Amino acid sequence: xxxxxxxxxxxxxxxxxxxxxxxxxxxxxxxxxxxxxxxxxxxxxxxxxxxxxxxxxxxxxxxxxxxxxxxxxxxxxxxxxxxxxxxxxxxxxxxxxxxxxxxxxxxxxxxxxxxxxxxxxxxxxxxxxxxxxxxxxxxxxxxxxxxxxxxxxxxxxxxxxxxxxxxxxxxxxxxxxxxxxxxxxxxxxxxxxxxxxxxxxxxxxxxxxxxxxxxxxxxxxxxxxxxxxxxxxxxxxxxxxxxxxxxxxxxxxxxxxxxxxxxxxxxxxxxxxxxxxxxxxxxxxxxxxxxxxxxxxxxx
Length: 300
Description:
α5 runs antiparallel to α6. The longest helix is centred in the middle third of the chain and has 46 residues, at about 125-170. The protein is flat. The chain has 12 helices and no strands. It is mainly alpha-helical.
C-alpha cells in the first residue's frame, strides 16, 4: 500500500510534464528578429567562450518553443525591453531568455523531486512545482532588477562623461572625437559600453542623430534622453555644442543632488518599521526573564 502514493505522485508528475510539452513538441523557434548589436555581441561571446556559449544558445532554442505556453506576446515585449536596458546579456532575445529559465526551472524541479524521493522515500509534485515556479520567476525578476541597477549606474556616470566631452570639444575636438576619448579610457562602465556601440553604429553608416536616438531607445533613461534631445535641439538652433553640454552637465548634477535629498528624506520613513521591531525585540529580551521570574514566584 505504501507504493501507491509513490506511483500516484509519479503518475501525476508525468501527466503534468506530458500536458505541458504534449506528445508532439511544438516546432522550433526560427527567424528571430535581429540587429547589428545582437550580431556583434554574439560574435564577441563566441570568440570568448566558444562551445559553451553555443551550447547555451542551443538550450535556449530548445526550450524557447515552449515559451508561448508560459508568456504572452505582451510579456515577451516587456522582457525584451528590459533586456535592451540591461545591455542585452548573453545577446539573447526575450523568447530565448525565457526559454533558458524554463529549462533551469525544469532541472531544479526534477532535482527537488529526486531529493524528496531519496530523502523521504516518495516524490512530492507540489515541492517540484514550487521549485520550478520560484526559479522561473526569479529569472524574470532578475533582468528587471539588473536593468534598473544598470540605468542607475549610467545616470551616475553621465555628468562626468558630459564634463569630459565639454573639455574635449572646447579643446578643438569634434563630438565623435570627444566620445572616442571617453571610450578610450577603457572602463567597464555601462555608459562607456553604450557609447562604444553608438560609435560602431556611426562607423557602419548611421548618422549621429540616428545613433543617439537608438541609444536613447535602448537605455530608456529619462536623464539621458533629456540630455541627448537637448543637444540635438541645440544643434538645430545653432547653439554651440560645448555650451549645451556644459548646461546639461550642470543640470544632471543638480538632478542627482535632488534625488539624493529625496532618498535621504524617505530613509527616515523606511527605517521606522525596522526600528519598532528592534525595540520590541529588546523589550522582550529585557522584560522576558523578569516576567518569567514573577510568574514562577507568584503562580496564578
